């Protein structure tokens, strides 16, 4: 092991030493939140609470894009809609438009259709 490997190991906290927030690690909390973005009705709720207009929240959504890369993507249960919606949330126009229940319903219908089509291939 080189001296740089030792330094990296010392800088990286062990999983047991990672701080907990309400009994959960930051990784667990961010995973649960980013997966909730797969639900278009939740996106509509975030818009109705004016969170999608908050620059700090928008910056947090930009930060969460690390979930679209390895090794994090493998932890997503529904990577397709999760990452699609995370990408759409980077666009100001989408953040404004998702307040519409009709858009949330259209995204939900699109998700159901994609699921049915995917299962037809089995």
UniProtKB/TrEMBL annotation:
The keyword Transcription applies. The keyword Cell inner membrane does not apply. One of its GO terms (biological process) is regulation of DNA-templated transcription. Residues 1-20 are annotated as: Disordered. Its main location: nucleus. InterPro entries: Med31_sf, Mediator_Med31. GO terms for molecular function: transcription coregulator activity. Keywords: Activator, Nucleus, Transcription, Transcription regulation. It comes from the Eukaryota. GO terms for cellular component: mediator complex. It is found in: Nucleus. Pfam families: Med31. Component of the Mediator complex. Belongs to the Mediator complex subunit 31 family. Component of the Mediator complex, a coactivator involved in the regulated transcription of nearly all RNA polymerase II-dependent genes. Mediator functions as a bridge to convey information from gene-specific regulatory proteins to the basal RNA polymerase II transcription machinery. Mediator is recruited to promoters by direct interactions with regulatory proteins and serves as a scaffold for the assembly of a functional preinitiation complex with RNA polymerase II and the general transcription factors. This is Mediator of RNA polymerase II transcription subunit 31. It comes from Xylaria grammica.
